[in-house]
Specification:
This protein has about 280 residues and is α/β, with parallel strands linked by helices. It has helices at about 15-25, 65-80, 100-125, 150-155, 160-175, 190-205, 235-240, 240-250, and strands at about 5-10, 30-40, 55-60, 85-90, 125-135, 210-215, 260, 270-275. The chain has one domain (about 5-95, about 110-140, about 190-275): NAD(P)-binding Rossmann-like Domain (Rossmann fold). It has an 8-stranded mixed beta sheet with strand order 3-2-1-4-5-6-7-8, with helices on both faces. Helix 2 packs parallel to helix 3 (about 100-125), helix 3 (about 100-125) packs parallel to helix 6 (about 190-205) and helix 5 runs antiparallel to helix 6 (about 190-205). It is globular. GO terms for molecular function: oxidoreductase activity.
């Protein structure tokens, strides 16, 4: 009997997350057990789609800022399947403004950076050899928005998670003192949170060579998050293309890299880019 592919998608209830789930369900070859994770843990409505009988979609409750919730989902999947093959960290948060409160800044970092890292760390022990982790990032995390001094620190090939966290804490202190932009940080906390996520991807890939771990920019997509910056040129289905490729497509076992199209408006399936 064929062993099904076990996949988890966070932020699965809407937008790009829902589109990723739909694409996985329709395009995965063979049997699939898909855990559609969201804070509410509600069932995913894909009734308008033709889902193969070899695909089982299971709703899952997950709050990526709650360690107990993260641990419970990892334990559930280990108990039900004895492992996981694909983890797509799609859940994210965006305040499209410079002047945010300290609580909003903390929330941005806790969701996009620390929460996603915590999910990765909870799932690493149950990921099967050759399994894939996909972290949905953003073009906003590109280092061109940072001072060269900070770029060098982010790109240090020996950077570890402790050093990365110290770097992000430096950002928080400077933001609290209203000196962040003068110190070379971009004006929006979202940018720093996604650069941190890109660094997490590189570090975890280096530390886990038995897995394929990448991050990507899905493009500028028509979701409530994306629409804060204007009228997005891409649909959620277009936005799902790069994450889907990194999850189940042919990528020659490339790991630890940032994938994107040349333009946030392009509907392609992405390629390795410098960030």
């Amino acid at each position: 009997m064929e062993t099904p592919l076990v996949a988890v998608v966070t932020g699965a209830n809407r937008g790009i997350g829902r589109a990723i789930c739909a694409a996985l369900a329709q395009q995965c070859r063979g049997s699939l057990i898909l855990y559609a994770a969201s804070r509410a843990g509600a069932s995913l409505d894909l009734n308008s789609l033709t889902i193969p009988p070899t695909v089982l979609i299971r709703p899952a409750q997950l709050s990526i800022t709650d360690q107990a919730s993260i641990s419970a989902l990892s334990a559930r999947i280990k108990d039900e399947n004895n492992g996981c093959d694909v983890l797509i960290n799609n859940a994210g948060l965006y305040y499209f403004q410079e002047n945010i409160t300290a609580a909003q800044r903390q929330e941005t970092l806790d969701v996009n950076y620390r929460g996603t890292l915590n999910v990765c760390q909870a799932f690493l022990p149950i990921m099967r050899k050759g399994g894939r982790i996909v972290n949905v990032s953003s073009q906003s995390g590109q280092l061109k928005y940072f001072h060269p001094r900070l770029q060098a620190r982010f790109l240090n090939p020996d950077l570890n998670l402790t050093e990365l966290d110290s770097l992000i804490k430096e950002y928080v202190r400077s933001a609290e003192q209203h000196t962040a932009t003068a110190s070379g940080w971009p004006p929006l906390a979202y940018f720093t949170s996604k650069a941190a996520l890109n660094s997490v991807t590189r570090i975890l890939a280096r530390e886990n060579p038995h897995l394929v771990i990448n991050c990507c920019c899905p493009g500028w997509v028509g979701t409530p998050l994306g629409a804060q910056a204007g009228q997005p040129p891409k649909s959620v289905e277009h936005g799902a293309r790069i994450p889907l490729r990194l999850a189940i497509g042919e990528i020659e076992e490339i790991s630890g890299r940032y994938w994107a199209n040349d333009s946030v408006a392009s509907a392609g399936s992405g390629k390795v880019q410098d960030w």
